Amino acid sequence: MNARMGLIIFAIGACLLNSGCKGGMELNQLHIVHTVGIDAGRNNGIKLTAEISLLSSSGQQPKGMQERTFYLSGEGSSLFEAARLMRTKSDRSLLWGHATVVVFNKAVAEQGIGKHIMALRRLREFRNSTLIYVTEDKASDVLEATMPNATITSQALRGLSEGGENTALTEEKTLIDVYDHLINEDTDIHVPAVQLLEDPSAKKKKLLKTIGIYAFDKDRLVGLMKSKETKGFYRAMGSLSGSVETIPCGPNQMIAFENTSSNSRVKIGLDADGNPKVHIEINADLNLASVQCETREVTLSSIEEWEKELNKSISDAVERFIAFSQKKNSDLLGIKERMHRKYPKHWKKVKDKWNEIYPRTTFSVEVHSRIDHTNFTT
């Protein structure tokens, strides 16, 4: 019995001795990074900028993160070197694991985003859920933008990404999403675009705005899809909900509809010459939101007419996206992967010529719109 009690006491003591923060660091030894900006540096290098929250304590009760941030930057031949050289300007170690957003400058992305995504993954401190953005402005300037009710830029950018369901202009694109597409090569990648705007209430301040999606050919940025193309892309992907569709009903007058659900089916086949042909079928459910034309009554015949107009409007947006995608040779729908899966033997023959085949691929679009909840009564 005594031997057993001795073993129990020894085990408890060992656990207590091996627990704790051995090898760890106290909060007052760290700078917590929340947002990262990546710009082109001198001599073909990289400039890395970090937005860091100020931490302090007051009396016996810790106050923690304050409503202020500061910025550190470093330049090097690679992300790793730039991050290490930032330590020469910091009185504390930098904790990268809390970074929730990485913003790339467009010029850097045009040269190839792949090596930088791989570097972020190798560091192993960045979370898979870290959001990725691209901006035409300096990434370091985006980090210094101000937004109402957001004291940290990453908070503002995460909030903007969550608004994509209502705007169909952005989405939450994470580090692991981009990494997976680069590794698997199933589709070309796309990354949300963010832009700096002047705050009309204070000219020295800058606001942030989502403006669409940047498309890539492999890992190189090739173009910006604006509102029409971006909405067409989400329609073709079957991932659009909550945004607005409009059709004209008179001079400077519109009828507005709210998207409630949308799904798509992408079918691939081969023509007589072995060239791919793609058919996209879209089903869209919408609610009638507003009718500006007082002379237009909500009747069964007018609803049927509006559905036909919506079919054309949605089809036009999808076709604009397809035209952009083929012009930029950016296979965002993963047509090559669909072809590989359905026609594996044929794919082996044509995969080396895919960059020539995709721009010539034949697409057709079929849309079925349905208007619900019109408050129409008979």
SSE layout and pairing:
Blueprint: H1 2-18, E1 30-40, E2 46-58, E3 61-76, H2 79-86, E4 93-95, E5 101-105, H3 106-111, H4 114-123, E6 131-135, H5 139-143, H6 153-162, H7 164-167, H8 175-184, E7 190-198, E8 206-217, E9 220-225, H9 227-237, E10 244-250, E11 253-270, E12 276-291, H10 300-327, H11 335-342, H12 344-350, H13 354-357, E13 362-372
Parallel strand pairs: 1-4, 1-5, 5-6, 6-7, 12-13
Antiparallel strand pairs: 1-2, 2-3, 7-8, 8-9, 10-11, 11-12
Helix pairs in contact: 4-8, 9-10, 11-12
Low-pLDDT segments:
19-23
* N- and C-termini, Cα separation: 87 Å
Largest sheet: 9 strands, mixed
Number of domains: 2
Would you tell me the overall average pLDDT?
86
Number of helices: 13
Radius of gyration: 26 Å
Fraction of residues in β-strands: 25-35%
DSSP summary, beta strand count: 13
Helix content: 25-40%
Describe the structure.
Keywords: Germination, Lipoprotein, Membrane, Palmitate, Signal. The chain is of the alpha/beta class and 378 residues long. The chain has 13 helices and 13 strands. It has 2 domains: 30-54 and 67-225; 226-377, Nutrient germinant receptor protein C, domain 3 (GMP Synthetase, Chain A, domain 3), CATH 3.30.300.210. 34% of the residues lie in helices and 35% in strands. Mean pLDDT is 86; it is low at 19-23.
